C-alpha cells in the first residue's frame, strides 16, 4: 500500500477571475497524494475576499454632441488610435429576410399598441386568489355540486359501460405501469395518457347512443375572448386544453327565473388584493374575440373542455387548477356568445353552456359553466353561473414498487384506493346532451 503524504503550504492565487488585476488573496491549502500519486488539494481556510461580490460594472458615459464641432475619429484609419474618438456607424440592414437576425419593431411603433393596458389570462397564469378571483373576473355565481340531471345520468346503471370498473382500472394501470419502463413516471407522461384512455372508454358508448358520433375532439387550438370588467380590459388567450366540440349546443341548466334571481347575488371581493394580480399586462393587443375555428366549422358548439396539470413548467395547487378551469370554460362560452349574438353587451336569450374537466392524473375537478350575460362591466345585474365539483380522486396510489418504512409495507405495489364514483361523473358529463 502506498503511503499518503500530507504537507501544508501557503499559496497566493488570484481570487476574482473576472477581474485579473484585483488584489490576490492568501489561501491555506492542504495537499496530499492519493493512491494513484495524483495531488489532491483541499481548502481548509480562506479569506473573506473569496466570497465577496464582483466589482460593479462600469456604466458607459453617454456621448455628447456639440453643434458646430466635428468629432475626429479613427474611422478613416480603420483601427484603434489613442486620443481619437470612437466612430459611430449607421445600423446595417440586410437586403434579404434573415429569420435568425430579425429584430422586431418597438412596442411603441406597433400599430396595435394602445395606452390602456389589457390584462391577459393564459396557460401559464397562476392566480393568487384562485376561485374567488376567477368568479369576480367572470362575474359568476358559484353553486357547489354538479347539476341534478348530470348526477342522475351518473347513477343510472343503463348508461354504464360493460365491465366498467375493470376497464377503468386497466386504463389507469396502462397509464401508470404498462406505458413506460420507469419506476416513477412523470406527470407530464401519465396524465395525458390517462385522459386519452378514459375518453376512449367513453367513445365506446357510441353504439348505444348514436348522437355521440356528432362530436369531435380538437387539440392545440387558440382561443381569444375579450371583455370589459369595471374600468379594466381583460382577455383569455392562447392554447387551453382539449375541447370536445358538438354539432348541437348543450341545453341550459338553469331556467329563466333562476337566471333572473342571480341579480341579487353579491360577488365576493378580496380587498386589498387587486383582481388583476398575476395577470399578464400587455399594451399591444386586439379587441376581438375568436373561437379558434373558422366560420362554417361543422362542430361550432363547445361541449366539454379538458384541462391537464402536467407539471412541466410549474405545479398548480388544486385551488388554482379549479380557477383555471372556470376561466377557460368562461372564455370558450364568451367567444361563442359574441360570435352568435354579436359583440354588444347583453343578457343572452339562450344561455351558452360549456362543461369542464380538470385533472392532474389522480384527482378530477368537474364544472358546468352557464353564460347568462355578456354585460360584464358592472357588479350589478344578471350573473353567470357555474356548478363546481371539487377534488374527486380516481385512485389513491399507483406504485410500481411498494412503499416501505421501518420494514413495514405502508403502500403495496399496484393500484390502491380505486373510487368508481369519479368515473361515473366523468362519463355523465360526456353523455350529457346525447342521452
From TrEMBL:
Q: Where in the cell is it found?
A: Mitochondrion
Q: Please tell me whether the keyword Transmembrane helix is annotated for this protein.
A: no
Predominant localisation class: mitochondrion
Can you supply a Gene Ontology BP term from the record? translation
Is Transcription one of the keywords UniProt gives this record? no
Q: Which Gene Ontology terms cover its molecular function?
A: structural constituent of ribosome
Q: Which GO terms describe its cellular component?
A: mitochondrion; ribonucleoprotein complex; ribosome
Keywords in alphabetical order, please: Mitochondrion, Ribonucleoprotein, Ribosomal protein, Transit peptide
> Which PANTHER family does the record cross-reference, listed alphabetically?
LARGE RIBOSOMAL SUBUNIT PROTEIN ML37 (PTHR15889:SF2), MITOCHONDRIAL RIBOSOMAL PROTEIN L37 (PTHR15889)
| Family recorded in the similarity comment | Belongs to the mitochondrion-specific ribosomal protein mL37 family.
Protein name per Swiss-Prot or TrEMBL: Large ribosomal subunit protein mL37
Q: Which organism is it from?
A: Albula goreensis
Amino acid at each position: 500500500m502506498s503511503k499518503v503524504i500530507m504537507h501544508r503550504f501557503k499559496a497566493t492565487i488570484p481570487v476574482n477571475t473576472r477581474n485579473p488585476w484585483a488584489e490576490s488573496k492568501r489561501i491555506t491549502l492542504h495537499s496530499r497524494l492519493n493512491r494513484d500519486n495524483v495531488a489532491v488539494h483541499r481548502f481548509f481556510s480562506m479569506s473573506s475576499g473569496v466570497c465577496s461580490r464582483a466589482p460593479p460594472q462600469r456604466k458607459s458615459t453617454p456621448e455628447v454632441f456639440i453643434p458646430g464641432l466635428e468629432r475626429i475619429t479613427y474611422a478613416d484609419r480603420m483601427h484603434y488610435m489613442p486620443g481619437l474618438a470612437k466612430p459611430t456607424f449607421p445600423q446595417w440592414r440586410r437586403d434579404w429576410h434573415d429569420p435568425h437576425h430579425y429584430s422586431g419593431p418597438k412596442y411603441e411603433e406597433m400599430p396595435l399598441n394602445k395606452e390602456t393596458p389589457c390584462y391577459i389570462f393564459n396557460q401559464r397564469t397562476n392566480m393568487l386568489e384562485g376561485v374567488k378571483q376567477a368568479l369576480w373576473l367572470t362575474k359568476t355565481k358559484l353553486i357547489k355540486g354538479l347539476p341534478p340531471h348530470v348526477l342522475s345520468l351518473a347513477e343510472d346503471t343503463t348508461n354504464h359501460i360493460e365491465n366498467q370498473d375493470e376497464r377503468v382500472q386497466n386504463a389507469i394501470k396502462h397509464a401508470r405501469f404498462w406505458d413506460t419502463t420507469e419506476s416513477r413516471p412523470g406527470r407530464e407522461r401519465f396524465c395525458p395518457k390517462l385522459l386519452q384512455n378514459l375518453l376512449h372508454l367513453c367513445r365506446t358508448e357510441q353504439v348505444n347512443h348514436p348522437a355521440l358520433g356528432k362530436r369531435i375532439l380538437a387539440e392545440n387550438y387558440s382561443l381569444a375572448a375579450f371583455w370589459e370588467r369595471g374600468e379594466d380590459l381583460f382577455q383569455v388567450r392562447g392554447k387551453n386544453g382539449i375541447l370536445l366540440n358538438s354539432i348541437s349546443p348543450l341545453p341550459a341548466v338553469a331556467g329563466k327565473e333562476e337566471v333572473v334571481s342571480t341579480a341579487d347575488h353579491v360577488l365576493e371581493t378580496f380587498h386589498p388584493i387587486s383582481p388583476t394580480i398575476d395577470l399578464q399586462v400587455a399594451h399591444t393587443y386586439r379587441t376581438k374575440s375568436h373561437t379558434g375555428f373558422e366560420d362554417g366549422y361543422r362542430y361550432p358548439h363547445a361541449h366539454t373542455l379538458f384541462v391537464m396539470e402536467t407539471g412541466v413548467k410549474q405545479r398548480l395547487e388544486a385551488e388554482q387548477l379549479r380557477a383555471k378551469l372556470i376561466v377557460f370554460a368562461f372564455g370558450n362560452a364568451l367567444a361563442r356568445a359574441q360570435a352568435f349574438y354579436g359583440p354588444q353587451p347583453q343578457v343572452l336569450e339562450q344561455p351558452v353552456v360549456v362543461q369542464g374537466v380538470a385533472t392532474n392524473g389522480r384527482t378530477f375537478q368537474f364544472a358546468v359553466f352557464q353564460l347568462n350575460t355578456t354585460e360584464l362591466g358592472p357588479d350589478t345585474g344578471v350573473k353567470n353561473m357555474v356548478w363546481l365539483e371539487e377534488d374527486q380522486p380516481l385512485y389513491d396510489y399507483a406504485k410500481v414498487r411498494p412503499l416501505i418504512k421501518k420494514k413495514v409495507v405502508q403502500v403495496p405495489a399496484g393500484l390502491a384506493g380505486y373510487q368508481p364514483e369519479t368515473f361515473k361523473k366523468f362519463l355523465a358529463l360526456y353523455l350529457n346532451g346525447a342521452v
